[in-house]
């Protein structure tokens, strides 16, 4: 296995930015796995399908072109909500598994961010960071981002979204969001994104030194 960096955590914790910075630092490809679930949710809604139908959602997941995830429609509030609803289905997660595992197997390394990278997708990853922050701070970040994208939302709506998503992602049966036992917790509540990225870099550098020094 190459040097896989698993960055997990709840919505708007800063994990996406951290993953991109780490990818740039090491020259590794970065996969935002949330986009896969967003693409399934948005794809299913476009077909007029039911987000609660595991069979319909899994069918969309199996047909998805996983290499084209740059549609701005995937970044909306509605897409995040749809993603978390289809992400509860085990068959959807199964359909997205091989692509994520193959990405993680890329040499000399890869960065993946999501909810279950350190626990399910790449449990053997030598570097794992679990990024978190209070719901209020995450809601503030996401609110500013969505307003910047031109969405008409209120802070309270976004805070409610964040709480609902944390609850759903953390309590589903299939690969619930949780910190892997060997992941390092990074609480970014009081940090600027610069400070958070720097803290993540130090965590990963320490993991890299251990990995380089370990036999095999
Ligand atoms: O990270 P992002 O907010 O884009 O993820 C959208 C939703 O996709 C999450 O709320 C979660 O339900 C789901 N997801 C997941 N597993 C991942 C990544 C995202 O279940 N590895």
Could you name the key traits of this structure?
single chain; 216 residues; alpha/beta; Rossmann fold; five-stranded parallel sheet; 9 helices; 5 strands; 12% strand; globular; binds cytidine-5'-monophosphate
State the gist of this model.
54% of the residues lie in helices and 12% in strands. By secondary structure, it is of the alpha/beta class.
What does this structure look like?
The protein is α/β, with parallel strands linked by helices. The protein has one domain (3-209): 3-Layer(aba) Sandwich (Rossmann fold). It contains nine helices and five strands. Strands 2-3-1-4-5 form a five-stranded parallel sheet, sandwiched between helices. Helix 7 (135-148) crosses helix 8 (155-171). The longest helix is centred in the last third of the chain and has 21 residues, at 193-213. The relative contact order is 0.21. The model has no long low-confidence stretch (mean pLDDT 96). It binds cytidine-5'-monophosphate. Cytidine-5'-monophosphate is lined by residues 11, 33-34, 37-38, 80, 83-84, 87, 114-116, 165, 169.
């Amino acid at each position: 296995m190459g040097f896989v960096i698993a960055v997990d955590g709840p919505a708007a914790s800063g994990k996406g930015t951290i993953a991109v910075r780490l990818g740039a630092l090491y020259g590794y490809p970065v996969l935002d796995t949330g986009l896969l679930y967003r693409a399934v949710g948005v794809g299913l809604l476009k077909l007029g399908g039911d987000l609660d139908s595991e069979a319909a959602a899994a069918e969309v997941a199996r047909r998805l072109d996983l290499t084209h995830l740059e549609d701005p429609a995937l970044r909306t509030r509605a897409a995040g909500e749809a993603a978390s609803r289809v992400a509860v289905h085990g068959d959807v997660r199964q359909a997205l598994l091989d692509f994520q595992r193959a990405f993680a197997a890329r040499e000399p390394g890869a960065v993946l961010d999501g909810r279950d990278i350190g626990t399910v997708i790449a449990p053997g990853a030598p570097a794992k960071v679990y990024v978190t922050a209070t719901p209020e701070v995450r809601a503030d970040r996401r609110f500013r981002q969505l307003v910047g994208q031109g969405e008409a939302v209120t802070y309270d709506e976004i805070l409610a979204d964040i709480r609902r998503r944390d609850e759903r992602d953390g309590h589903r049966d299939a690969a619930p969001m949780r910190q892997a036992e060997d992941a390092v917790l990074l609480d970014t509540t009081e940090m600027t994104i610069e400070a958070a990225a720097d803290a993540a870099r130090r965590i990963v550098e320490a993991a890299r030194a251990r990995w380089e020094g370990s036999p095999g």
